[in-house]
Amino acid sequence: MRIGYARVSTQDQKPELQLDALATAGCEQVFQEKASGKDIDRPELARCVQTLRKGDTLIVWRLDRLGRSLKHLVEIIQALEARGIAFQSLTESVDTSSAGGRLIFHIFGALAEFERNLIRERTMAGLAAARARGRQGGRKAKLVKGDVKKAAAMLLDPTVTKAEVARHFSVSRVTLNASLKREGFAQR
Questions:
Q1: Which residues are catalytic?
Q2: What is the pTM of this model?
Q3: Where does the pLDDT of residue 59 fall: very low under 50, low under 70, confident under 90, or very high at 90 and above?
């Protein structure tokens, strides 16, 4: 069975161009929705994927109608392929039911992996450069060294609980414990 999926991003866009192309491609059923490509929750896409069975073909007008990113697109198509479902994009002429289409898809997969690795390398290089300039990543501590010393002094009084000290500094007990540990104060 040939099943189509059409998506438009805004209320102003019209799906007719996609619907006509999917009908011409012989789609027996078409799922359509109005949703941003960035939206994770696309109920019609979920229904479409659930409807597909082994031997079916999912058809889209253009690749960007299906995935939020190249990585997301590759994940969707790999999941379909694992279930024995072919994929076809009309505009880009990608058809995973043919050897050439599978080759193109695997090239897309390799490009997605390459893109992920580049992003990771740039991130690591940026963090290393920041550390070399004396900057440290992460969130700023909620309790500065002086506050931690005050908290430790307050905890010397056996009538004062950690919960009370944490409340005094407007932090959680977990944050108080982590701060005490970071500054080398013994915990009780």
A1: 9
A2: 0.60
A3: very high
